[in-house]
């Protein structure tokens, strides 16, 4: 048994030296500097990214005294007043579309119930204990600003609208203001009118 133990020990030692030298050789072929290989990842595939454009935008921001560019500021943010204690009234946004018999029965105009086929947006605002003369309404392309002595509403609209083509109507018996705004849509095969 001792012969078998010595023989197997020698075999294990020989196998160990054989594998260790082979691993060292493979490691040298793949990458001689292990830290350089460890820093590589999927982002290193392909040409290196261009950094000239990033430097130029940073340089432009440093020259400008503005904190934000106009694209970064949402339209209507100048109306947000956190110190104003007036509550926001209840409101509801409803999308409307003109549907005729050719749409309803035959489907000729390719309209569907999605919001892409809507032509107008109806905003219903409940204003209890408010007179029509107290309401101040300002409509921008993507923002609706409503002010009364009791309420304040700054509403970012879900779709761009024609700000000058809208209609507002106040119903005293329901104490509700209805604002109808036409939606700006790109001309495509659905919105050809």
Secondary-structure map:
Elements: H1 2-30, H2 34-38, H3 52-63, E1 91-96, H4 101-106, E2 120-126, E3 136-139, E4 143-147, E5 152-156, E6 167-171, E7 176-182
Number of discrete helical segments:
4
What level of helicity do the residues show? 25-40%
Rg on CA atoms, Å: 35 Å
Order of strands across the biggest sheet? Answer: 1-2-7-6
SSE string: HHHEHEEEEEE
From the N-terminal CA to the C-terminal CA, the straight-line distance is 99 Å
Structural class: alpha+beta
Number of strands: 7
Shape: elongated
Largest sheet properties: 4 strands, antiparallel
Mean pLDDT, nearest integer?
A: 76
User: What portion of the residues fall into strands of 2 or more residues?
Assistant: 15-25%
Low-pLDDT runs: none
Description:
The mean pLDDT is 76. The chain has four helices and seven strands, in the order αααβαββββββ. It has 193 residues and is an alpha+beta fold. Strand 3 (136-139) and strand 4 (143-147) form a beta hairpin. The longest helix has 29 residues, at 2-30. The protein has a four-stranded antiparallel beta sheet, with no helix packed on it.
């Amino acid at each position: 048994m001792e012969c078998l133990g010595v023989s197997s020990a020698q075999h294990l030692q020989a196998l160990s030296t054989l594998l260790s030298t082979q691993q060292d050789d493979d490691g040298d072929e793949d990458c001689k500097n292990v830290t350089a290989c460890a820093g590589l990842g999927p982002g290193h595939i392909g040409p290196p990214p261009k950094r000239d454009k990033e430097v130029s935008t940073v340089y432009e921001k440093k020259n400008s005294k503005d904190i934000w560019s106009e694209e970064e500021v949402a339209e209507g943010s100048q109306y947000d007043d956190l110190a104003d204690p007036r509550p926001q009234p209840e409101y509801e946004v409803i999308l409307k579309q003109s549907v005729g018999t050719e749409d309803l029965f035959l489907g000729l105009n390719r309209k569907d119930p999605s919001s892409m086929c809507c032509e107008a947006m109806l905003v219903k605002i409940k204003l209890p204990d408010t007179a029509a003369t107290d309401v101040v309404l300002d409509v921008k392309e993507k923002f609706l600003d409503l002010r009364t002595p009791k309420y304040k509403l700054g509403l970012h609209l879900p779709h761009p609208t024609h700000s000058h083509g809208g209609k507002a109507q106040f119903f005293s018996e329901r104490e509700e203001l209805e604002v109808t705004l036409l939606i700006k849509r790109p001309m495509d095969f659905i919105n050809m009118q």
